[in-house]
Amino acid sequence: MDANSSRHLANFHSNVWGYNFLSYTSQLTEITTQEKLEVDEYKEKVMNMLMEIHDNSTQKLVLIDTIQRLGVSYHFHNEIETSIQNIFDASSQHSENNDNLHVVSLRIRLVRQQGHYISSDVFKQFVERDGKFKKTLNNDVQALLSLYEAAQMRVHGEDILEEALTFTTTHLESMIPMLNNPLKAQIIEALSHPIHKVIPRLGARKYIDIYENMESHNHLLLKFSKLDFNMLQKQHQRELSELTSWWKDLDLASKVPYARDKLVEGYTWTLGLYFEPKYSRARRMLVKVFKMLSICDDTYDAYATFDELVLFTNAIQR
Fold first, then answer.
1. What Gene3D superfamilies does this protein map onto (predicted)?
2. Which residues is 127 bridged to in the sheet?
3. DSSP state string for 19-84
4. Most Cβ neighbours (<10 Å): which of 11, 77, 166, 218?
5. Tens digit of each residue's pLDDT (9 = 90 or more) over 124-177
6. Could you count the other beta carbons within 10 Å of the beta carbon of residue 187?
7. Contact 116, 153 (CB under 8 A)
């Protein structure tokens, strides 16, 4: 009898990547001194922009949002945190454009993203007595989009934001055929992957393209985000190349063929947690730990017999 006949094999999909990432050699992924100097130069200019604008102004809200969505906010963590704290502290006072739905929505989302609770009661001014949002907002695309993203930050029991999500989703979907890019692309992306639910690197890559096509884009911010994205991409490619080499040397794909061979997917998962350069070692260690754990998991769930698992469990416990 076939040794595998009594086993409940999962037959996982094969590895579609192979060892392709070994081609990203240290020469190809080298970050040059010129690249570092250029990024530092643009970083300083963006820092000056951040420091020059008053915290509770609409301009500052838009700048912080743009920096975050372009994927470069990790360079200005302390500065943004301080600004958001100041915005939160002043939220109970009359702020600039407090009757502007776009600005109010943007302010609430940015503050909540930073971990502060700011009441959604401010949206009551945009609602009719029946609890529905005012019809005058139906065609305000920018306001609808901002409210939609703010509604993603709702907590249990916030009926007004539940209504906001339904209201904005319905109207944004109906507007798509009538809009042109880049606004059309931005809405399609938002409906599929709201800011709060997207993997940061993927979100940044897509938003860079959208932002570039906006007539009002800031050339300095766009250039900085592209340089930074490319530099980070090189680092991530180098890390993935090193991990692929480690995985190939272990040859576990042939030794335990029943287990999932998903190194690249595991690395991508770590980027969702920590993509910043300073977490390079953490990413590599996490991937190695995940791979060992996934082999153990697949051994239990997709290969070993009960008697084998008893022996295996006893060995682990010892």
1. Farnesyl Diphosphate Synthase, Terpene synthase, N-terminal domain
2. 133
3. TGGGGS-TTTT---HHHHHHHHHHHHHHHHHHHHS-TTSHHHHHHHHHHHHTT-GGGGHHHHHHHH
4. 218
5. 999 999 989 999 999 999 999 999 999 999 999 999 999 999 999 999 999 999
6. 19
7. no
Q: How far apart (Å, rounded) are the C-alpha atoms in residues 261 and 35?
A: 35
Closest C-alpha among 232, 233, 229 to residue 209: 229
For the CA atoms of 12, 17, 19, 21, the dihedral, rounded to the nearest 10 degrees, stands at -140
Residue 81, amino acid: E
Domains and CATH numbers, the chain: 20-26+227-317 (no CATH), 53-217 (1.50.10.130)
Task: Report the length, in residues, of the chain.
Answer: 318
Q: How far is CA 235 from CA 25, 40, 96, 192, in A?
A: 11, 17, 41, 28
CA distance from start to end of the chain: 33
Closest residue by Cα to residue 176 from 190, 194, 188: 188
pLDDT on residue 1: 39
Rounded to whole angstroms, the Cα distance separating 81 from 305 reads 53
- List pLDDT tens digits, range 225-249: 999 999 999 999 999 999 999 999 9
Q: How far apart are CA 102 and CA 147, in angstroms?
A: 7
Residue 4 has pLDDT above 70, yes or no: no
Note the pTM of the prediction, 2 decimals: 0.91
Which residues, 6+ apart, have CB-to-CB distance to 304 below 8 Å? 7, 312
CA-closest candidate to residue 160, choices 194, 203, 191, 126: 126
In tens, the pLDDT along 171-224 reads: 999 999 999 999 999 999 999 999 999 999 999 999 999 999 999 999 999 999
Q: Give the pLDDT band of residue 95 (cuts 50, 70, 90).
A: low
- Distance (Å, whole) CA 94 – CA 114: 21
